[in-house]
Amino acid sequence: MWIEPRAQELKSGEKRAVYYVTGYHKKMISRAGGILRINKQINQTNKESNK
Length: 51
Fold this sequence. Notes:
This protein has helices at residues 13-21, 29-50. α1 runs antiparallel to α2. It has one domain (11-50). By secondary structure, it is an all-alpha fold. The protein has 2 helices and no strands.
């Protein structure tokens, strides 16, 4: 069953990545882990640039 991601409704990169994983095959989980790390980096960069 595919659960359509609603990234716009999620404020944290972690929730967004986990939400995407729910609709993917198990073999995609490792790639989602990479997405999770990338989102953390993006969020941190955004916080630093907003100061």
